[in-house]
Amino acid sequence: MKRIFRPAILIVSVCLVAAAPAEADRPTQAQTKPGRNRLVRVVTITQANLRSKDQNVFDATLVWLNRAASFNPDIACLPETFPRKGAETVPGPTTEKLAEWAREHSCYVICPLKTKVRGKVYNSAILLDRGGKIVGRYDKMHLTEGELRGMTPGQADPPVFKTDFGTIGIQICFDVNWRDTWRRLKDKGAEIVFWPSAYPADRQLSALAWMNRFYVVSSTWDRFASIYDIAGDTIATTGRFQGWAGAALSLDKRLFEIDYHVSKMRKIQAKYGERVKVTWLHPEDWVTLESLDETLSVDDLIAEYKLTPLDKYHARCKKAIDQARKKNNTATSDQ
Question: What was the pLDDT predicted at 334?
Fold first, then answer.
């Protein structure tokens, strides 16, 4: 059954069923109750191993995108400048074609391509909403030296984009090397950062995911495209037999230090069982908590068990350290 669109704090079923009902059989928004736990289904595409002898790159890429539709995604990401052709205006042929796909599948699409604006050429990623409307644009900030000979870099402050499931950011290829930009996206509230690229940058993306505690989704020309969770683990990747990957991401998932949390996590597991997922990251002395139940959010559990997410715990520790240092400095100066 085709997933029903729900606004804002939407919950998307993780079950896939074969046939779509008639429009008359779909419940209206008034008949549905949005869940508390936000799950978003994402898919990513690689252009590696495309069988494109008899097709252009655009059509060959759409073959994988159409197969990825079976995952019933909320958002799909294509590789950097994926049509592999000259710059075009927006709206234009590429965005119009992807807008049709977005409408058909009620799915956001990140459409990377070379764009032309008032005589300037940009390496861009266009965000289309579920209705195929252009709702965002990111222009690559950090161009390579080769690109600078014919293209214009985007603005220095990266934008974030509000969707009906949460806040996302976009970076493109060479942008991976500027960690402060990724931190800026975190500070602006990004929960997922999409990274269309020519190559995988696997170690860098894993590190950026765990340093910023957000999901990262790559989409590549060659080798593989991957999805990383907030602890930096690879949770889905493309390969030789499938050029797309998908994952259901819990945007309420949180990371915790084990300090003060071991017994609390055990109590949560005992009470909520299969409704939650607790993952112990033993080498780091960390633990992650996510809800698998649309009626239960991690914020509910944080409030019930007085949990302290990792970032807040570090901020609390820093404040205590600063106070202790100030007190010690004052005592020393009085001697």
Answer: 62
